[in-house]
Amino acid sequence: MAPMTFFDRLSLRARRIDSLLCVGLDPRVEPGSADPAARLLDANRRVIEATADLALCYKPNIAFYEQHGPQGLEALARTIAAVPEGVPVILDAKRGDIGATAEAYAAACRALAVDAVTVSPYMGHDSVAPCPYMGHDSVAPFTVSGLAIFVLCRTSNPGAGDFQTARVDGVPLASLVAERALAWDGEVGLVVAANDTGALGMIRAAHPNAWLLAPGIGAQGGSMDEAVAAGLGRDGLGLLPVVARGISRANDPAAVARDQVERFRRARDRCAGRAPRPDAAASELLDAILDTGCLRFGEFTLKSGRVSPFYVDLRRLQSSANALRAAALAYERLLVGLRADRLAAVPVAALPLATAATLRTGVGLIYPRLPAKPHGTGNRIEGEWRPGERAVLVDDLITTGKSKLEAAAVLREEGLEVRDLVVLVERGGRAGGTTDLARAGIRVHAAATIADLAARARSRSIIDEATEGRIAAYLEEDA
């Protein structure tokens, strides 16, 4: 029988104790303090003893020990030894190098008897995954040394966006890291911040079976509820929400850990049975649309003369900073996997929304003039662009598709490539906008549908069951 893998052991323990909590062991002892090894060990033993039956695993950050020199490293070794047998330990070391240096890093981790280590992917696969190096038989050491790895993907610090939101061939760098790293041999998970639920939901949606180490809960602004909603795997596993200072600095670490576990269980139970489970970005968008009154319920006579049980006007989103943020997160999620050299707003309703998306994604914004202005420069496209670039159309809503086709025609005539449209809501119905766009070679990517919004409104008691039924019947009749 093959030995159990690290992730097998995580899954088994998670189901046994009904917890995914990862407890950070990052004791703050000032450099130069007397007997730092004893102080570090005492602080850690206090946390371990209080949380041993609640923690799925522990995560010491090596920097808090290395700063104390040999005594700190002694305390780290003794801390790991103090963790009860069978409880995994992830060393947060963020290592990343090649050849003999990487082998030495891995040997140091093995000497400490940890089960997994965080690594930096900047130097590529040969710094972490099995690979011949420089014509020699040696291999990069981490994944062939019995160590699982968690690859830095989207981190929790304020400056994470300096590089991680940059786009490579139209794909966010963090998404590219996730895709490449999870294809490496060995046991590979990802580090994805719990305090960026948009990114967490985006990575989870793209990689439903990956294990995600999610720091940032508590002092860095993340919450257990939101992290679980965005990042939990379909099997109720796959997420390691990290709580460090919130537990270690508490007067009663056991009580705080127990509260976090209960929060996880409640959030997990709320997620159960959702198929498919919307990510946090989608949920935030649905609430923003409802809270700003963009979707109204009642009886509304349409231009065609038909009576609709709802009316949608997403232009109200621009008046709320929180709603614009939710829209930007939803667009970012839709753009995953799409090549986007430019975002092309369909004027005029999409202009403020596309601006928010540009600020979130870092992809430059342009828009076609409909019609072209007869004075001044006579530009048909406003903004900076080059022929041959691929522009993704951005709009708020799709019904007929007429304005989108007009915008795409201008962009294509000027030498841009247009293959995709992202919208917040697909209204659907007889207008056939999605079909018309498909005939023009444009794929439609929608964050939500009217049915999604109605279900959300029903769950929040904004509408009753009868109203939701009328909307469903109208949509079915209109299909």
N-C termini distance: 54 Å
What does the average pLDDT come to? 86
Strand order of the main beta sheet, please?
A: 2-1-12-11-10-7-4-3
| Rg on CA atoms, Å | 26 Å
By DSSP, the count of extended strands is 20
Structural class call reads alpha/beta
Beta-sheet strand percentage? 15-25%
Residue runs with pLDDT of under 50 for 5 or more positions: 130-140, 273-278
Largest sheet: 8 strands, parallel
> Counting H and I runs of at least 4 residues, what is the number of helices?
18
Indicate the percent of residues in helices: 40-55%
Q: What best-fitting shape do the alpha-carbon axes yield?
A: globular
Walk me through this protein's architecture:
The protein is α/β, with parallel strands linked by helices. The protein contains 18 helices and 20 strands. An eight-stranded parallel sheet has the order 2-1-12-11-10-7-4-3, with helices on both faces.
Features:
479 residues, alpha/beta, eight-stranded parallel sheet, 20 strands, 41% helix, globular
Report a brief summary of the structure.
By secondary structure, this protein is an alpha/beta fold. The protein has helices at 6-17, 36-51, 63-66, 69-82, 99-111, 161-164, 173-181, 197-206, 224-231, 245-248, 253-271, 280-291, 321-335, 350-361, 402-413, 433-439, 450-459, 465-478; strands at residues 22-25, 57-60, 90-95, 116-119, 132-133, 136-139, 148-154, 167-168, 171-172, 188-192, 212-214, 239-243, 295-301, 307-312, 342-345, 365-368, 381-382, 390-398, 417-426, 443-449.
Architecture blueprint of SSEs:
Elements: H1 6-17, E1 22-25, H2 36-51, E2 57-60, H3 63-66, H4 69-82, E3 90-95, H5 99-111, E4 116-119, E5 132-133, E6 136-139, E7 148-154, H6 161-164, E8 167-168, E9 171-172, H7 173-181, E10 188-192, H8 197-206, E11 212-214, H9 224-231, E12 239-243, H10 245-248, H11 253-271, H12 280-291, E13 295-301, E14 307-312, H13 321-335, E15 342-345, H14 350-361, E16 365-368, E17 381-382, E18 390-398, H15 402-413, E19 417-426, H16 433-439, E20 443-449, H17 450-459, H18 465-478
Parallel strand pairs: 1-2, 1-12, 3-4, 4-7, 7-10, 10-11, 11-12, 15-16, 15-18, 18-19, 19-20
Antiparallel strand pairs: 5-6, 8-9, 13-14, 16-17
